[in-house]
Amino acid sequence: MIQPEHNISWLIDDKSSIVFGGQTDKLKIEIPLPPEIGYGYSEHIHLPGGILLVQSRLFFKRNSKVPLPPKLPYGIFKSQFPSIVLLVHIVHKGEMECISKITEQVALRSSKTTLFQIFDKFNMEQNVYTKEDLAYTSIAIPQETLKSLVGDDLHRELLKSLRLSELGNPYANEINLPISITRQLKESLSDTLQKNLRALYAKSKILQFLLDVSLHSSLSNNLLETEETQIIAEKLYYYLINLDGDVPTLIDLAKKFGMNSIKLNNAFSTKYGESIYAFIMNLRLSQAHQALTSSTVPMKIISSRIGYSNVNNFIAAFKKKYGITPGSLRQI
Question: Tens digit of pLDDT per residue, the chain (332 long)?
């Protein structure tokens, strides 16, 4: 296979610093279930713009000598946000009961519907059913961040289509979404990437989810492809292939090219057949291929500089793309 020529001086220069890191990282919290009942954990990641992404899993021991109660108290959760937020709650597996201490609403949460809420505070009692394990994802997006992501017009249309006002009335709404859409959030946390790329990956999944919800809610007229978006997508393409080591956020790219993140990602995907994130990762693997064949920089350093937190993850991704390991490539 003939490889394109890349600017890889940042990748093979011994004096080059590793540009990945940043302040965003996952926090894993153990859920204190009685050991005879089961175990669980919750993973949190804070993303730029004040976005909070949470994924939780509970595993119940059904073969234990201690019989499981049909329903367990999960806890009372309270929070006061500095501004209005959009909360999305998706149960991927199992069932749970949510009781609002503010509105006294009771909702049975399952994989059949996605819950959308908009508010600045909540006080929620939650119980979980033990007939199957539980897995769910929640994201909280500040109102201003949501506007910057999708633009004012699409933001208003999105709230309207979800039947949510900016003042939070009605308090919540449940919508039946296809698994193909909710899967975007289920797969939004990655263990194989370093901090900045992990945040970029999570943000791209959230953007794709919002895009899919918009399209599902008959908002595609706001995202129609135009000649202007094609020109911007092409400019973005040439900008990305000439990047040095630094990886910009989707928000930074949106600001640079004067288009909200969802429209920018959609225009790029339409023209080049993959999301901005997927393109960057494939580009970095291509750059790594060239660096491996044209330099003696250790594989571990190359993998770290292109954003992999573990060299084994880099080897697996490289082999999946090229059908050969990086080490074997250097022996050819």
Answer: 334 455 656 666 655 444 333 345 678 888 888 888 899 999 989 898 889 999 999 999 887 677 888 998 888 888 888 888 999 999 999 999 888 877 676 778 888 889 888 888 878 888 999 999 999 999 999 999 998 888 888 788 788 778 776 554 445 778 888 888 999 999 998 878 887 788 888 988 998 898 888 777 654 444 445 677 888 999 999 999 888 777 777 778 888 888 877 778 878 888 888 888 889 889 999 999 999 999 999 999 999 888 888 899 999 999 999 999 999 998 87
CB atoms within 10 A of CB 77: 12
Measured distance CA(307)–CA(185) in Å, rounded = 21
CA 121 to chain centroid: 23
Query: What is the Cα–Cα distance from 58 to 33, expressed in whole angstroms?
Result: 9
Beta bridge partners of 60: 38
Neighbour count for residue 89 (Cβ, 10 Å) = 23
| Contact residues for 3 (Cβ-Cβ < 8 A; gap 6+) | 286, 289, 290, 293
With vertex at residue 164, the alpha carbon angle to CA 163 and CA 166, rounded to the nearest 5 degrees, is: 145
Cβ-based neighbours of 332, under 8 Å, separated by 6 or more: none
* Cα 154 from Cα 104, distance rounded (Å): 31
Cα three-residue angle 80-166-141, rounded to 5 degrees? 50
Q: Is 240 helix (H, G, I), strand (E, B) or coil?
A: helix
Q: Which domains does the chain have, with CATH numbers?
A: 9-21+197-331 (1.10.10.60), 26-189 (2.60.120.10)
- 3-state class of 137 per DSSP? strand
Answer whether 0.70 is exceeded by the pTM: no
